[in-house]
């Protein structure tokens, strides 16, 4: 039988080394023994964006980017988005198994009964500038939660840890809705225990003192499905931030503020906002050709296209494209849909995109649905953050309980000046 090892010959010294291969990987630390001379530090690998480095072991989410497969705890995203609910998927992601009816009822009850936030958080919210971006407010408010729950520092106490996790999942819709209401100067609406997770969020977002908002069941279900699709996506930038910040054993609120900040960026959770702005700017189908020309000339990117892991159609984008039709039957169609479909058609028949395997990702169509449902583009990353809270927390818990975990501390290749000596300011040229 073939040996599960890798033999490396260092041509500087002529010496060979045998490195174990486990789970299709070698351990980067095994390279350290490869030295040019005894006082040499040893070989490192250089991988600035983790292009080919597994940063952890995980049992939560499986992605096969070549074949467009996404599974949570083994269950295909297509089955979950068709047959499950966000509360059930949250339980699955956090606990590894689908809940029994009693477990689901217990979990839902806990989440429902932690949706209120401390009244002082309202005052904090009031302090933000009137036109603040709701995602910037969201990031700050999540971090601020740690000041209200001091016991959250006890991350290795399972009961206390799980309580913070429930609190976060329960409170993010409240914070999200209120961050928007602050940014438009509306009064804050309190959560309602009789509504589902998605319906409660819609209620807090839309209800006005002057008229009662009734949640449409199709829109409630659509939002629930969007929450399922965004619940986890293994080691993306924000999840890596969650793990990286959390590896110092800080409380989950502080770690999650870091994760949410990462999600805010236009290359990650801000992409659906960027897609909508791009489609609006295109304006008519006739202008698509010019945009494609500019993208190919390196003058910007086609937002909502391409993915570090998916080199085929993002399975979430497929579900969302179909979901859009159901939503538009209720809300009326979004005129930008025609532009999006035509843009997709043109891009997918263009060599530039085909050769680079650039397909629509989750953000390409989600913004169209959000907009049709009445969410302003500023809210898009916040809508992503609500369900991703579940994924961040599951990954964070898995990380702190993993015996392999140590504080994240990458190495660097130093390129700055060599030793030089301080010169007093008066003597500098
Ligand atoms: N439009 C045009 N060209 C692109 C695009 C794009 N959207 N994405 C990648 N490329 C090109 C890129 O210029 C490069 O070409 P070349 O080899 O000639 O230099 C090649 O494709 C490979 O790109 P890359 O930058 O090495 O790919 P990456 O894996 O580092 O980037 C990405 C992944 C998602 C950041 C990138 O595809 C992108 O910027 N997409 C637009 C933003 C976007 O839609 N983000 C949402 C990601 S999905 C939601 C989430 O998980 O957060």
CATH architecture of the largest domain: Orthogonal Bundle
| Average pLDDT metric | 95
Summarize the biggest pleated sheet.
3 strands, antiparallel
Strand content: 5-15%
CATH homologous superfamily heading of the largest domain: Citrate Synthase, domain 1
| Helix percentage | 40-55%
Poorly predicted regions are none
Oligomer: single chain
Q: What radius of gyration results from the CA coordinates?
A: 24 Å
Count of DSSP helices?
17
Give the strand order, joined by hyphens, for the main sheet.
3-4-5
- Shape call: globular
| CATH class bucket of the largest domain | Mainly Alpha
Number-wise, the strands total 5
Small molecules bound in the structure, each named once: carboxymethyl coenzyme *A
Please give the domain count: 2
| Helix/strand order, N-terminal first | EEEEEHHHHHHHHHHHHHHHHH
Q: What separation lies between the terminal Cα atoms? A: 69 Å
SS content category: mainly alpha
**CATH level-3 fold name of the largest domain:** Citrate Synthase, domain 1
Describe this structure in words.
By secondary structure, the protein is mainly α. The protein folds into 2 domains: 1-54; 72-396, Citrate Synthase, domain 1. The chain is built from 17 helices and 5 strands. The chain has helices spanning 77-83, 86-95, 101-112, 119-126, 134-144, 158-184, 197-206, 217-229, 237-246, 252-263, 271-282, 288-296, 315-331, 336-348, 351-355, 362-372, 380-401, and strands spanning 5-10, 15-20, 61-64, 69-72, 75-76. Strands 3-4-5 form a 3-stranded antiparallel beta sheet. Strands 1-2 form a two-stranded antiparallel sheet. It is globular. The mean pLDDT is 95. It binds carboxymethyl coenzyme *A. Carboxymethyl coenzyme *A binds next to helix 16.
